[in-house]
């Protein structure tokens, strides 16, 4: 890269100020992309179950990720990638469309309305104010909880942990070749980390993929280049169906859930990743307003194109672990998503077993924030513990945050520390009560 190009990148992303380099940011972007590329295949499968055109969803997924990552990189200068979230697409398909019998077109209208509300609260800095009001101990707990959560995702995706009807979870079968591929990747990546090899996580992913191909556990791609499918079957459907929500009270609840889950899911992820990257300053995240606006606009764009809400991706922690510190990483991820629309067959090589070791090891790095929590103060320790344990056990970041905020203000009052409570803590207490109650009513 020429000195002139490097100078432009330096001015845009302040690389020297953040103690990073172009090479490191590009490697981190590649690592993040490889860790989250599964969404290009998983999202069309899940939304396809709702009756949506899988090809159009693939294109919408890639375009909304490109939009979100570009906005995050240029607006906020953060190494955090954005793409359609896994929890939201599952709720959309299996709870709203299949369980409640709402047509996917109308449900997408609900996503569009929720995204408008989401953008408005970001524009008026309401989200920023709420995030700044979150107690520091709970921010540390969010980082650790997300770390354990993504480790659990890795253990499950790699086949090391499986579901069990009697004990909920159990150890996986070692007779399955893909499980051994995960174990191979875990040992290789852990050894590289222990040797302090730069880019250990990325190299671990590459070596695991190569081993999968060599042992024929992963089938080789059928082709290399494939044109992106048309967006026509899903584009604008949410916009044209938004008015039907006004006459359906059931859809009001759906809009509320999409809004609240997206709100706190992204907030928790941003805080956790910022904590890991060392971005937090005096308990606050600089440029948080720009990061939230990037997330909001990508959610709005995704709803127009035909996909469920976007979110900040916890897999960004893999890139941060490699050394990502600026928005250049997010820009690299956007470019790779753009390439993926043409070279989509190659992504089939990056299976869940290939990325699982990276997620497990990143969990170790993120849980280091546990040491910062005031465990000697029970009124703080218990809510923090509920956040940490709630995320992996409910398989949802928002639910874990909810558990913590339902206990924190009450225990602080009982402990005689009422004056330390920000009034917004009570607002969040009520919001989480509404969220959990609404979800319970919809399920039962």
From TrEMBL:
UniProt-recorded Gene Ontology molecular function terms: purine nucleobase transmembrane transporter activity
Compartment(s): Cell membrane
Membrane topology, from the record: Multi-pass membrane protein
Keywords on record: Cell membrane, Membrane, Transmembrane, Transmembrane helix, Transport
Pfam families, per the entry: Xan_ur_permease (PF00860)
Main location: membrane
CC terms in the record's Gene Ontology section: plasma membrane
Bilayer-crossing regions: 26-48, 54-75, 108-126, 138-162, 174-194, 201-219, 251-273, 294-314, 320-339, 346-368, 380-411, 423-442
Coiled coil: none
Family recorded in the similarity comment: Belongs to the nucleobase:cation symporter-2 (NCS2) (TC 2.A.40) family. Azg-like subfamily.
Record-given protein name: Permease
């Amino acid at each position: 890269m020429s000195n002139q190009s490097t100078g432009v990148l330096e001015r845009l992303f302040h690389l020297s100020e953040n103690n990073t380099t172009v090479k490191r940011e590009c490697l981190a972007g590649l690592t993040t992309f490889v860790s989250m590329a599964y969404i290009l295949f998983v999202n069309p499968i899940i939304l396809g179950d709702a009756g949506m055109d899988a090809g159009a969803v693939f294109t919408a997924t890639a375009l909304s990720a490109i939009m979100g990552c570009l906005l995050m990189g240029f607006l906020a200068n953060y190494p955090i990638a954005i793409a359609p979230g896994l929890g939201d697409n599952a709720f959309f398909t299996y709870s709203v469309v299949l369980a409640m019998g709402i047509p996917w077109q109308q449900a997408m209208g609900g996503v569009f309305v929720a995204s408008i509300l989401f953008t408005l609260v970001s524009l008026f800095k309401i989200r920023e104010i709420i995030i700044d009001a979150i107690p520091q101990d709970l921010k540390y707990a969010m980082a650790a909880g997300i770390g354990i959560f993504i480790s659990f995702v890795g253990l499950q995706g790699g086949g090391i942990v499986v579901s069990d009807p009697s004990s909920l979870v159990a150890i996986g079968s070692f007779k399955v070749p893909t499980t051994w591929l995960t174990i191979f990747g875990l040992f290789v990546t852990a050894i590289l980390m222990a040797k302090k090899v730069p880019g250990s996580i990325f190299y671990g992913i590459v070596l695991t993929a190569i081993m999968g191909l060599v042992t024929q556990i992963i089938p080789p791609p059928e082709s290399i280049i494939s044109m992106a499918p048309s967006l026509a079957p899903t584009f604008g459907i949410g916009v044209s169906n938004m008015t039907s929500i006004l006459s359906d009270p059931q859809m009001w609840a759906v809009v509320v859930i999409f809004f609240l889950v997206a709100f706190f899911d992204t907030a928790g992820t941003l805080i956790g990743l910022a904590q890991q990257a060392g971005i937090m300053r005096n308990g606050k995240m600089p440029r948080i307003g720009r990061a939230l606006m990037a997330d909001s606009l990508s959610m709005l764009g995704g709803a127009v194109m035909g996909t469920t809400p976007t979110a900040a991706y916890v897999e960004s922690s893999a890139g941060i672990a490699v050394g990502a510190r600026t928005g250049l990483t997010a820009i690299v991820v956007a470019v790779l998503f753009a390439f993926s629309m043409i070279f989509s067959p190659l992504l089939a090589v990056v299976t869940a077993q290939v990325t699982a070791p990276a997620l497990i090891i990143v969990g170790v790095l993120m849980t280091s924030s546990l040491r910062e929590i005031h465990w000697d103060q029970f009124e703080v320790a218990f809510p923090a513990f509920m956040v940490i344990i709630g995320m992996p056990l409910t398989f949802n970041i928002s639910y874990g945050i909810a558990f913590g905020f339902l206990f924190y203000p009450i225990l602080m009052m009982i402990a005689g520390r009422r004056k330390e409570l920000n009034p917004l803590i009570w607002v969040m207490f009520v919001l989480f009560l509404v969220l959990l109650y609404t979800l319970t009513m919809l399920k039962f």
